[in-house]
Amino acid sequence: MNDVIATRLCNPVTLEIVRGAVRAAQAEMEALIERTAMSAFIREKKDFYTALFDADGVMAVGSNVPVFGDICGPVFREFPPDSMQPGDLYWYNDCYGSRGAVSHSNDQVFLAPVFHAGRRVAFVMGWAHFADIGGLRPGSISPDATDIFQEGIIIPPTKLIAAGVVNTATLSIFYRNSRFPRAAQGDTRALMASVELGTTRMAEIAARFGAEVLADALRQLFERTRETVRERLRQTFAVGTHRFTDRIDGDGHGSGTLRIRFALTRTADDRFILDASETDDQSVGPVNFLMNPDVPGMALGLYFLGGDATQVVNAGGPRALDEVILREGSLVQPRFPAPLGMRGLTMMRVLAALNGLVSVAGGEAPAAHAAYVIMLLRGTANGKPFLMSDGIGVGYGARGFADGIDAVYFVAQENYPVEFLELEYPIRLTEYAMHRDSGGPGRWRGGCGIVRQYEVMAEEAVLAVRIDGVENPPWGAAGGQSGRPGRVVVNPGTDRERVLRPLSDGNKLVKGDILRIETGGGGGRGHPFDRPPEAVLADVLGGMVGAAEAARDYGVAIADGAVDAAATDALRANRPATLEFHRGSYAHVLD
Predict the structure, then answer these.
(1) CA 235 – CA 110 distance, rounded (Å)
(2) β-bridge pairing 323-325 and 272-275
(3) Secondary structure of residue 408 in the 3-state scheme
(4) Taking a C-beta distance cutoff of 8 angstroms, is the pair 500, 509 a contact?
(5) CB-neighbour burial class of residue 210 (10 A; exposed 0-12, middle 13-18, buried 19+)
(6) Phi and psi for 412 in degrees, rounded to 5?
(7) How far is residue 251's CA from residue 286's CA, in Å, rounded to a whole number?
(8) Which pLDDT tens digit goes with each residue over 185-241?
(9) Distance (Å, rounded) from C-alpha 466 to C-alpha 137?
(10) Are 326 and 293 in contact (CB under 8 A)?
């Protein structure tokens, strides 16, 4: 160790300055994308990320997103790094060609090398979800898709800019494949500008500290993250094999329940092996998740690094695992050309299954979260086509020290504001509220989902929707109960009411129809009868829990806006027995 310290060029003080500088550069890149992109999914939803890499393409600083894989590798396989020049820019969205670094085709990656004094010192990346890139339906995502060619144009790793000269013909082909080319053009320019800004800032950092010191600083950040995550793995997982199984409801094509089976083994010689090979086979429908081998380590790293301001998210998380075993032809490693457009559903269950591994090992990872809901409303209004792509927040699982978070879409993304929706699209929002009683009961309550109710103002429209967890709700832990499911219903409470299939497309709507979407909640943690009555009262008064449900689930009687202490004592005298996990019913092991 002393020899390693002696060879370090970047001292601890300078390391923190460099860490702050590169994080600031990353934040500035993201701010530029947000302020200049044209499509709502980027500008309003915030579905974009940036990352910085060392000179060899190892991620040194990434966004707090647990789905990154090897971003630079796909480009390096086609364009050797030593052949790159200042002013180059590379682009791809090829899921299978990138081995899951991109996991559905709407996501576009722009990558550029950074040079200082003729030496390559770093790479910078901008990534964003484009609204429409062609394919079977507007939005390029549909539950009806049965192969990836129906999900839009596929861009293999391509040199978009060569030493400052833009390949405009390639961009023209891309724009021609979009139903909304002006939005695609604006989003492309925003990403290109963000990457150019990132190369400028990283070159400035290299000039300030020197290429050698910068390289050593990025190396130290990577090593620090890796060692921190490995130490937390040692503290959490005893020697042996730990298993967990989670489920999705199906693929919308009749598959039925699909299982994600993970096993994490710690060997006697301190190796950590994540085995996903027993996961069910790939699906006909677009719920397949082409999981890059880096994803489990990145997700576990984010969990273990949570709350530590001295750490950054980088490739140290994935490198903390010694091996990830995947089976080709499975739901998390499908064969080309299986569709991937709705992979976010399975991805969310993968993240919950990793939390489950921590839980069975004795850790206090959050209970399961619901998978964020996707809806795509396409149609014609005033003679013009429109595409309303909306991702709607859900409830997240209760933690070992706090309730689950309410109404979360995914990490840093946001729910569309009411004013934006009504100005931008031919709809009127008649209700926007918390989904009462959707959070799983527990000592710590699961987060609640959302209710959005729209009045359709367009002459005609077709709806695609994705909701999971109806048949297999997000599990509760340590005695907590599972979250409650969501649903989609048209014209509720009328003689024209119809409940839509949770994963479906081609649902026709006409002017005046009411579309109600209720999203699911997260699992609870701890016995519900251990929740303080005052906290249950606050939930009832705040609209999170109904009074009848407070008595049924928490054993708390509410009368006239206050806790009835005597009635509560009587209810809680009959304390139900619990087991370790709950998904509709209690069990020690979920399968």
Answers:
(1) 38
(2) parallel
(3) strand
(4) no
(5) middle
(6) -100, 0
(7) 7
(8) 999 999 999 999 999 999 999 999 999 999 999 999 999 999 999 999 999 999 999
(9) 15
(10) yes
